[in-house]
TrEMBL record:
This is L-beta-lysine 5,6-aminomutase alpha subunit. Signal peptide: none annotated. Residues 5-511 form the D-Lysine 5,6-aminomutase alpha subunit domain. It comes from the Bacteria. GO terms for molecular function: catalytic activity; cobalamin binding. Pfam families: Lys-AminoMut_A. InterPro entries: Cbl-dep_enz_cat (IPR016176), Lys-AminoMut_A (IPR015130), Lys-AminoMut_asu_sf (IPR037086). SUPFAM superfamilies: Cobalamin (vitamin B12)-dependent enzymes. The lineage of its organism: Bacteria, Bacillati, Bacillota, Bacilli, Bacillales.
């Protein structure tokens, strides 16, 4: 990045140090806790799927069953694996017996924990090997087919009907899309279970289910073969089922997941404890699956002013980066988010947008930054909107962004039609092709408007991060320091699903993931490897 913005490297280092301390403090808090979603994820990774006679997902049935016995603090894995051993059944068969009322897991005779640990290691290896194999398949397909150049062209389908989504996803790929994201049905992030099977009705989007993931993956693989390039599939790994959806994505070879540490707290009023625990486990799964995460800092600018609050975006990017590193997720998989959201009527607004984009690119040089289009200031004037999107595309190629979520000229009017998406892709392709190497030719005037703005935002972000480090992230969220939204430590949805770990807590999948990702094991955790060694 020589010859670009002259940013104070000492301040960048201070920002990272503060963000790292913020993340470590939170990690110490969450390491003593689990959630019902984490425990359900363990079951899904064991291969438990399906629903009971009342259409309740079996992972929910089993976790609720153990919780009602007051034994979830030991982790659901201990009880299910014991059932596998005592009954000579598979995890799926044990779950079905629980659903039928044929057994009570916590009343079965208890096997020696050494035997449980051996079986737990076996099940964890088998489940994670499926994800490893999917990652290898993706790598092989990209090597064979190739893929589009960055910035990846990212478009959305949102019909509510998964079979129609598959048709539209193929159409988008043929038009030039590199990433197809299936928007989730409105409100799914607030339901504490994952719907089952293929779904054909959704409002504002399509339900995220494992079968729907499978259908879309198959459709994009088919069109990828036709087009001669790999097409990436994206969905939303957030909300009350965040780690479960991460597991489903890993099992069905999704490539990109919306996965933010703070989004659910700020914009869905999900309890902060619940969200931060869930994001840690979900990111470990995404890291191992080779899934690129997309964070949601761009959303801050929908509730706060893009000029006055630009530093909160940068501060959150630093925090998201550190949480990701703690989960073993490398910079190459960190699609840190930001947005082109400054009021277009502001003089020199383009320079301010350019400063923010170039600053993010230099501070996070290895991250495939996710750049969001103008939405807040879109109007019914589709011609002006198309120009706004063109300016956004120009800044993106100039600053070497990684993922370009394309803006639609009808953004403010209705869910875009197929032809609107085609125009958006053509707009981006035209600008990206004509200005492909423009960034290599541009120098920023030392001390000029762009450089001064970037340094101002960095200064404010450092001050904010050091204040959050002093008071703690929970207090910062309570004070509304991010997105001008205040949340409480004990308020919000999902708090009842937070569980303090007992002395005998056991999660073989976290143990195995930490080993494979070369992360330190949790202090105080019951480690199967340690027990087996004694």
């Amino acid at each position: 990045m020589e010859g670009k913005l002259r940013l104070d490297q000492r301040k960048i280092a201070r920002a990272r140090e503060a963000a790292a301390q913020i993340a470590w403090d939170v990690d110490a808090f969450i390491s003593e806790r689990t959630t019902v979603a984490v425990e359900r994820t363990v079951l899904r990774l064991m291969g438990i799927d399906g629903v009971d006679a009342d259409q309740v997902p079996l992972p929910n049935v089993v976790v609720d069953h153990v919780a009602e016995s007051g034994e979830l603090e030991s982790g659901v894995a201990r009880w299910v694996i014991n059932g596998v051993i005592q009954l000579s059944k598979t995890p799926q068969e044990v779950a079905e017996m629980v659903a039928e009322g044929a057994i009570r897991l916590t009343e079965l005779p208890q096997a020696d924990f050494r035997e449980i640990a051996i079986k737990g290691r076996e099940l964890a290896s088998r489940g994670l090997d499926r994800i490893r194999d999917n990652r290898s398949q993706r790598d092989q397909m990209i090597q064979r087919l190739g893929e589009g150049p960055r910035p990846y062209l990212y478009v959305i389908v949102a019909t509510g009907d998964i079979y129609e989504d598959a048709v539209q996803g193929k159409s988008a790929a043929r038009q030039g899309a590199d990433i197809v994201a299936v928007i989730r049905s409105t409100g799914q992030s607030l339901i504490d279970y994952v719907p089952y099977g293929a779904t054909r009705e959704g409002y504002g989007g399509t339900y995220a289910t494992q079968e729907n993931f499978r259908i879309m993956r198959r459709a994009l693989d088919e069109v990828g073969e036709e087009e001669g390039r790999y097409i990436r599939l994206c969905n939303y790994c957030s909300g009350l089922c965040m780690p479960e959806i991460a597991a489903m994505g890993g099992l069905e070879r999704l490539d990109v997941m919306l996965n933010d540490a703070l989004y659910g707290i700020l914009f869905r009023d999900i309890n902060m404890q619940r969200t931060l625990i869930d994001q840690a486990f979900s990111r470990m799964i995404n890291a191992y699956a080779g899934i690129m995460i997309n964070t949601g800092e761009d959303n801050y600018l929908t509730t706060a002013d893009a000029v006055a609050s630009a530093h909160t975006v940068l501060a959150s990017q630093f925090i998201n980066e550190q949480f990701a590193l703690l989960a073993g997720l490398p910079p190459a998989q960190m699609g840190l988010g930001h947005a082109f959201e400054i009021n277009p009527d502001l003089e020199d607004g383009l320079l301010l947008e350019l400063a923010q984009a170039q600053m993010a690119r230099q501070i996070f040089p290895d991250a495939p930054l996710k750049y969001m289009p103008p939405t807040k200031h879109m109007t019914g004037n589709i011609f002006k909107g198309h120009i706004q999107d063109a300016m956004f595309n120009l800044v993106s190629i100039l600053t070497n962004q990684g993922v370009q979520l394309l803006g639609m000229m009808t953004e403010a009017m209705h869910t875009p039609h197929i032809h609107d998406r085609k125009l958006a892709i053509e707009n981006a392709q035209y600008i990206f092709n004509n200005a492909r190497h423009l960034g290599e030719e541009i120098m920023y005037r030392p001390g000029g408007r762009v450089e001064r703005r970037a340094q101002e935002v960095l200064d404010q972000a450092v001050d904010m991060l050091e204040e959050v480090k002093r008071i703690g992230l929970f207090a910062a969220l309570e004070q509304g320091m991010l997105a001008d939204v205040k949340r409480g430590l004990e308020s919000g949805k999902g708090l009842s699903g937070v569980v303090h770990k007992g002395e005998t807590y056991y999660n073989p999948f976290e143990e195995e993931l930490r080993e494979r990702l070369q992360l330190p094991q949790r202090e105080g955790a019951v480690h199967d490897s340690g027990l087996l060694a004694n």
